[in-house]
Structure formats: C-alpha cells, structure tokens
Amino acid sequence: MSGQLVAAEGLPWPPSVGDFYPPNVAGPWVTKFGIMIWLAVALLIIFFMLAYRKPKLVPGKAQWYAESVYGLVRDNIAREQMGNAGIRFAPYFTVLFSFILLTNIFSIVPGLQISPNSHIAFPIVLSAISYVMYIYIGIRKHGLGKYLKQSLILPGVPWPMHFLLIPIELLQNFIVRPVTLALRLFANMFAGHLLLLVFTVGGFVMLASDSIFVQVTSVFSFAMAIVMAFFELLVAALQAYVFVTLTANYIGSSLADEH
C-alpha cells in the first residue's frame, strides 16, 4: 500500500529485497557476480605478473606492493599460525587473501557497488576449498585412522566421556569450522552492503519528497552512506585477514602431532 502511494506521487519506489541482487547480464549463466569474479582473477594475475616481471633488488612501486602483501601474509598469518611449516603455504594464503580483499572492495567501487561475497555461494566455495585442503593435508601426513583419532579423541579423558566428546569434536572439527568460515564472510559483507543500500537509496527517496524538511534530512542519509563506505573498506580488509587466518589455523591443526 505504501509503495503504491509513493508511486502515485511520482517518487521512487522504496528499497526492497529485489534491489539487493543485481539482475542477470545475459541470462542465468552470465551474471554481474560472475563478471566480477573473472575481473578480480584477471586483475590479480596482471598485477602480480607485472610486479614480478623484472624483479629488482631495490623494488619499484608495483614490486614493493606485491612483496608487502606476501610479507604480511607470510609473517603475520602463515608463520604466526603454523610456525615455519606455514611458509610453504604462504603463496596459497596470499592468493586467497588478495582475492577476498579485492572482491570485498568491489562493494564500494562505483559501477560495481556490491561484493560477490555478499552472496552466500561464493563464501561457500572459498570455504570448501580451504576445508578440502584442511582434511587432505591431515590425512596425508597422519593417515586416515590416526588423523580421525587425534581429531575426535581427547587424550587423558576417562573412556565413558568419549561417548559425549566424540560427537562434539566431530561437529566442531568437520562441520562447524567450514560453515562458520563461510557464514562469517557472507554475513559481514551482506550486512555492510545492506547498510550502504539503505542509506543511499533512502537518501534519494527523501530527496524526491515534497517536504523541505525531508529533503534536508536526506543530506544526513548521504553523509552516513559516505561514512559507511569507509567503514566497509575497513571491514573488507579485516574479513579477508580473518578468513585466511582461520584457514591457516585449521590447516596448522591438521599438521599438529597432538590434539
């Protein structure tokens, strides 16, 4: 009813759920999200190829940026979570961090203005890749039987308690970890985009009002949209860091000799 009144007055429709998801570009197989994923992949490949095309002892700007990203991930994530064993995983963690960071930043880029990670499908895929690596590395090092034993059975616990603890450990190690890894990234990017949408579209709706007071109030809505855009940039970097840190922590636990 309210939407009909707004339309009758010649004003824009208020924000709805349909405003959140971008329309398909060319049918269900070519979507804006898909284009952004390929764009992110292309940009990262081009950036790192140009940065390391002619490496120098005294790096230029591009090489310095690339080395800074790799150094951050290697020293503050891989080595911090896994010790020296984490260095061999640093390239994967760097690619994962860079990809998540770039696709998160898309949420405040004009013309894109949404992160693919605000759609649950993409965090699920990223989480599944890390989850498969987490399981595979543990089985490869310890063998299936030993890996399951050290993942599910707590040492030094009276045997009757295992009837309670084994299901809890199974749920925590093999179900909760991948699910929360995906949901954490999705929920933060979804909420951030929703706030930007509310303040931006709400500002345009108020600006089109016949009331001078409402039009003036729209300035505060646009101001909050700008503030939230900077906050979204901080969240984008933080969520990329958290996702990769948890991935490194999980893989490190698979390599550990004890529970």
Structure description:
Keywords: ATP synthesis, Cell membrane, CF(0), Hydrogen ion transport, Ion transport, Membrane, Transmembrane, Transmembrane helix, Transport. It is a multi-pass membrane protein. It comes from Micromonospora profundi. With 259 residues, this protein is mostly helical. It has one domain. The protein has eight helices and no strands. It is globular and about 75 Å long. The N terminus is likely disordered.
Short description:
It is a multi-pass membrane protein. It is found in: Cell membrane; Membrane. The chain is built from eight helices and no strands.
* Sheet/helix structural class: mainly alpha
Q: In percent terms, what proportion of residues is strand?
A: under 5%
Overall mean pLDDT stands at 83
* Main sheet characteristics: none
Q: Give the domain tally.
A: 1
Shape summary? globular
Discrete helix count:
8
Q: Which H/E pattern describes the elements?
A: HHHHHHHH
Transmembrane segments: 33-52, 89-108, 120-139, 181-207, 219-244
Subcellular location: Cell membrane; Membrane
GO molecular function, one term: proton-transporting ATP synthase activity, rotational mechanism
Function: Key component of the proton channel; it plays a direct role in the translocation of protons across the membrane.
